[in-house]
Design brief:
With 346 residues, the protein is α/β, with parallel strands linked by helices. It has helices spanning 11-21, 50-54, 56-62, 68-80, 102-111, 125-134, 148-155, 160-177, 199-206, 234-246, 264-269, 281-284, 311-315, 318-330, and strands at residues 33-37, 88-92, 116-120, 139-143, 184-190, 213-217, 253-256, 285-288, 293-295, 304-305. The structure holds S-adenosylmethionine and iron/sulfur cluster (2 copies).
C-alpha cells in the first residue's frame, strides 16, 4: 500500500489498516492526523456544545495558548523527526480563526509541505478565505446547523448563518480565481432538538452554495449531560434519515458516526445499549490541547507536552501505549466514550 495515500482514505479503509497494525503492544506507526486545538476561545454560544456548557472562561484559563514560535517549533520537530508519513494537521477549537496569527501559522505549515484542514463556525471565514486557498488548505468543515433562523438560534448569536455563507462564497470565489480544487468544503450540521425535523430542508438550503458535501453529525452527549437529546423525536428522525439515505441530492450527504438505522433509537435513548465496544482513534489521531498537552482523546490522561518534547517521542511512550493496550484488552470504559462520535458503532 502506498502510505502517502492513507491520508486520503475513507474511514473504513483507515480502520482496516489500523486493525492490522494495532496488535503491536500498543504501538502505532504514525497518527493519520493531528487534531490541534489552537484555542478554547470562541465567539459563539451553542447550547449543545460541551465546551460552552463547561464554562468557557474556565477552560480558556486552564489552557494558556502556545505562541507562534512554539507552534513553529512543533512543526519543525514534525519535519525533523519524520513519521512514516507526515500527518495532516487539523486545526480545531474553540474557534481556530480567532487566532490573530492564524494566517502566519498556516503559511508556515504549508511552507513545510504539511497538509492541513480545519473546523470553523465560519464567522471569520471571509477574512481568511484567500489565505486558506493560497496556502493550500486541504478541506474546511464549516458548522451550519440548519436553515438561517434555526442556525442563528442554535448558535446563540444573530447573523451567524449569513456570515458563514459569505465565508463559504469567498472560499469558492478564490478557488475559482486561483483555479484550485481545494479546499473542499464540507458543512457539518449537528443534529439537535431544534433541527432534527429540518434535515432535508437544510440540504436544499445549502446544496447550491458551492459546498462539496454535507455531514449530519449525531449529537454527542454524556451520562449526566444530555443537552437536548431528549427533545428529539427519534421515530421522526429515523424516518427522515432513511428517506435522506434513499434519496439523491446534488451533493453527497453522510451521517457521522455511521450508526445503523436500527441503532438510532438506543443511541439516543438507551445509554446502557451495548454497541461494539472498540475504538481505533488512539491509534490514528493525536490530540494537542491549546497549551501543548498531548492526549489521545477526552478519555485519556496527558501523555506529554509538545513544548518540551517532540510528538514523535510522545506518540509511542509508555503511557500512550498503556492506554491503547487497555482499550485492546478491556474495551472502552470511560464515561466520555458512551456517546463519543469516534468509537465504532458497528
Ligand atoms: C466544538 S466545534 C469547534 C470548531 C468551531 N467552533 C465550530 O463550531 O465549528 C466542532 C464541531 O463540533 C460540533 N459540536 C458541538 N457540540 C456538539 C455535540 N454535543 N455533539 C456533536 N457535535 C457537536 C459543532 O457543531 C462543530 O461542528
Ligand atoms: S462555535 Fe464551536 S466551539 Fe463555539 S460554542 Fe459553538 S460549537 Fe462550541
Ligand atoms: S470512544 Fe472513548 S477512547 Fe475512543 S475516542 Fe472516544 S473518548 Fe476516546
Amino acid at each position: 500500500m502506498d502510505l502517502k495515500k492513507l491520508q486520503n482514505l475513507p474511514n473504513t479503509k483507515i480502520m482496516k489498516f489500523a486493525n492490522s497494525i494495532r496488535i503491536f503492544r500498543g504501538y502505532s506507526p504514525f497518527p493519520v492526523y493531528i487534531l490541534l486545538y489552537l484555542t478554547y476561545r470562541c465567539n459563539l454560544k451553542c447550547d449543545f456544545c460541551p465546551q460552552y456548557n463547561r464554562g468557557r472562561s474556565n477552560i480558556v484559563k486552564s489552557y494558556p495558548e502556545m505562541n507562534l514560535s512554539e507552534l513553529k517549533n512543533f512543526v519543525d520537530n514534525l519535519i525533523r523527526d519524520k513519521f512514516f508519513i507526515n500527518p495532516r494537521i487539523h486545526f480545531f477549537g474553540g474557534e481556530p480563526l480567532l487566532r490573530k496569527d492564524f494566517l502566519e501559522i498556516i503559511k508556515y505549515v504549508d511552507e513545510k509541505d504539511i497538509k492541513f484542514s480545519l473546523t470553523t463556525n465560519g464567522i471569520l471565514l471571509k477574512k481568511f478565505a484567500e489565505g486558506l486557498v493560497e496556502n493550500n488548505a486541504k478541506y474546511i468543515n464549516v458548522s451550519i446547523d440548519g436553515p438561517e433562523l434555526i442556525h442563528d438560534k442554535n448558535r446563540g448569536v444573530q447573523g451567524t448563518f449569513k456570515k458563514a455563507l459569505m465565508g463559504i462564497n469567498k472560499v469558492v470565489y478564490f478557488k475559482q480565481k486561483n483555479k484550485k480544487n481545494n479546499p473542499k468544503i464540507t458543512v457539518n450540521c449537528t443534529i439537535n432538538a431544534s433541527n432534527y425535523n429540518h434535515l432535508e430542508e437544510t440540504i436544499y438550503t445549502l446544496q447550491n452554495s458551492g459546498i462539496d458535501s454535507l455531514t449530519f453529525q449525531h449529537l454527542r452527549f454524556y451520562k449526566d449531560k444530555l443537552y437536548d437529546a431528549k427533545g428529539i423525536d427519534i421515530d421522526y428522525l429515523t424516518k427522515e434519515i432513511v428517506k435522506i439515505k434513499k434519496s439523491r441530492y446534488q451533493i453527497p450527504i453522510t451521517f457521522f458516526p455511521g450508526i445503523k438505522v436500527k441503532d438510532i433509537t438506543p443511541y439516543y435513548r438507551d445509554l446502557s445499549y451495548r454497541f461494539y465496544n472498540k475504538c481505533l482513534r488512539p491509534w490514528l489521531v493525536s490530540t494537542i490541547m491549546p497549551n501543548g498537552d498531548v492526549v489521545a482523546c477526552s478519555a485519556s490522561e496527558v501523555f506529554g507536552n509538545i513544548k518540551t518534547q517532540p510528538l514523535k517521542l510522545i506518540w509511542n511512550n509508555g503511557a500512550y501505549r498503556a492506554f491503547r493496550n487497555k482499550i485492546n484488552s478491556q474495551g472502552i470504559s470511560h464515561e466520555n466514550c458512551i456517546r463519543c462520535c469516534h468509537r465504532q458503532y458497528y
